[in-house]
Amino acid sequence: MGEIESKTASHLLESKAIILAPSNPFTWASGWRSPIYCDNRVSLSYPEIRNYIKEAFRTTIHKCFDAPELIAGVATGAIAQGALVADIMHLPFVYVRPSAKEHGRQNLIEGRLSSGQKVVVVEDLISTGGSSLKAVDALRLAGANVLGMVAIFSYGFEVAIDNFRKAGVELHTLTNYHVLIETALASDAIQQDQVEMLKQWREDPAAWQGK
């Protein structure tokens, strides 16, 4: 477990951007029952945490990608995060809509993107990877050279790993589900007897019913 992974996990738990509730599961829009709820936009309300995530993104991008020329955020959750990263890196910024506007210029990508520009995509959360990779497709179609993607958190679902591999997109996250559970256990946010339940959910979230 690296320092960025553990500290990001701590910040997400501290700010309640991620809530673990094995005994009182949430219901996602997909209908899945889940012992975890993640809304990383909450972290934006805490300046110290917001700044830490911004710096962690910059460190990760410098380490993993060669000289990006533009930062792209995925709407809506990563618009603010992407803009913060672009600002600290002194790079241009665009964001990608989930679908084109129905009026005006009917933009799918907001901002100025030049063909051939080297782009790193910023995302807040990776579940299956579907919406994130849809944004990558839009950028590639517009001529971008997508170097890869960074995200705050990933559940680590096998379907997401497979989807990113098939799309040829390099993904790096600040933290992940495994580190989150370890961090939550160490801080007494969860108890040892809840860990197995949380692991079972991640292995098969569609079938999990909160036993």
What layout of secondary structure does this protein have?
Elements: H1 3-14, E1 18-20, E2 26-27, E3 33-34, E4 36-38, H2 47-64, E5 70-74, H3 79-88, E6 93-96, E7 109-110, E8 118-126, H4 130-141, E9 145-154, H5 158-167, E10 171-176, H6 177-186, H7 192-203
Parallel strand pairs: 5-6, 5-8, 8-9, 9-10
Antiparallel strand pairs: 1-4, 2-3, 6-7
Helix pairs in contact: 1-2, 1-6, 2-3
User: Sheet with the most strands?
Assistant: 6 strands, mixed
In angstroms, what separates the terminal alpha carbons?
29 Å
Write down the secondary-structure element order. Answer: HEEEEHEHEEEHEHEHH
Unreliably modeled segments: none
Radius of gyration equals 17 Å
- The tally of structural domains comes to 1
| Separate helix tally | 7
Total strand segments: 10
- Beta percentage is 15-25%
Helix content: 25-40%
Biggest β-sheet: strands ordered side by side in the sheet: 7-6-5-8-9-10
CATH topology group: Rossmann fold
Name the structural class. Answer: alpha/beta
Mean pLDDT: 93
Morphology: globular
Secondary-structure arrangement, i.e. CATH architecture: 3-Layer(aba) Sandwich
CATH class: Alpha Beta
